[in-house]
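[SOLVED] Predicted holo structure with S-adenosylmethionine

Edit: marking solved, answer below. Original request kept for reference. I posted the sequence and ligand SMILES and asked for the 3D complex as structure tokens.
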Amino acid sequence: MQDQQSARLLGPAEVRRLAEDLGMRPTKKLGQNFVHDPNTVRRIVATSGVTAEDVVLEVGPGLGSLTLGLLSTAQAVTAVEVDAALAATLPRTVAERAPALVDRLRTVEADALSLRERDLADRAPTALVANLPYNVAVPVVLHLLAEFPTLRHGLVMVQAEVADRMAAKPGSRTYGVPSAKAAWFADVRREGPVPRGVFWPVPNVDSGLVSFTRTEPPSTVAREQVFRVLDAAFAQRRKTLRSALSKWAGSAARAETLLRAAGVPPSSRGEQLAVSDFVRIAEAARDIPDDSESSGAR
Ligand SMILES: C[S@@+](CC[C@H](N)C(=O)[O-])C[C@H]1O[C@@H](n2cnc3c(N)ncnc32)[C@H](O)[C@@H]1O
């Protein structure tokens, strides 16, 4: 007999049937690849570290595959879905397959990229767990970490290459803007791979898991200031920092001064720097006045 607190997860036949009932054709634009493998759902929930204390924010619940798994473990799940038909069907699916848990679910029809802290103020999320739409995975994670300081930890499933990039460390081939910005917010770790066969429809790329644990902001300088340095450094990643940062700093000479003050060799490149280095450069820019500005030279 089924345990009251557990949900009946969706297998291949149920995923197809739900989609058919909705008359839906999954779209690439919204990254609609649905998990139809209960073992993958159990693995994601277990790896996420979600406990009965957590209020989970799930982006893109789709047909409910992962939502059902999360509801058995979390205190509550807020599921944010942009597709109106999917958002409308989710509560029904949960009521059918996990009647004892339906009160834990709140469904919000919205674009995760426009979600604001005040929208969920009465039930602040503590964990982000999601099988993210491929094309907006990085912006969604960065937006939610910035907007919801209560998010302490999480696990997301994304395209394998994106997972590598998000968790990459300085000096590695895949290190770039997503890695450095994610590191501002959290300790980010690459977890295991996910084969494409667990999805319907089957995507043409493999997926991977990335976990994160929130850390204290590494700086007294505003995040936006640090991200401006970082964006400038990676916009021309083959150039030395002296050259790549010259426009941002006002001149190549000032870029060099700021880099030296931050203890960063001007001949190095952005891909070699940790987020703490970008912080020191932004701090130098705050502390060292731009002479050309005061003399009216620019
Ligand atoms: C990869 S599917 C995952 C579905 C489900 N969680 C699963 O594992 O089977 C991505 C889901 O995100 C939804 N989605 C796409 N863009 C979104 C956005 N900007 N905000 C919220 N949901 C979005 C899609 O409609 C789809 O349901």
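OP edit: The mean pLDDT is 95. Thanks to everyone who chimed in.
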